[in-house]
Amino acid sequence: MSLHVVIGFGPAGAATARLLAEQGHTVRVVTRTGRSTGPGVEHVALDATDSRRLAEAARGATAIHQCAAPPYHRWADEWPPLVSSVCAAAEETGAVLVMLGNLYAYGPVEDPLTETMPLAATGTKGRVRAAGWETARRLHREGRIKAVEVRASDFFGPGVTDGGHLAGRVVPPLLRGKPVSTLGDPDAPHSWTYLPDVARALAEVAGEERAWGRAWHVPTGPALSVREMAGLLAAQAGTAPATVRRLPPALLGAASLFSPLLRELKEVRYQFDRPFVVDSSAYEAEFAVRATPVDEQVKATVDWWRERLATPR
Question: Residue 7 belongs to what H/E stretch?
Answer without folding.
Answer: strand 3-7
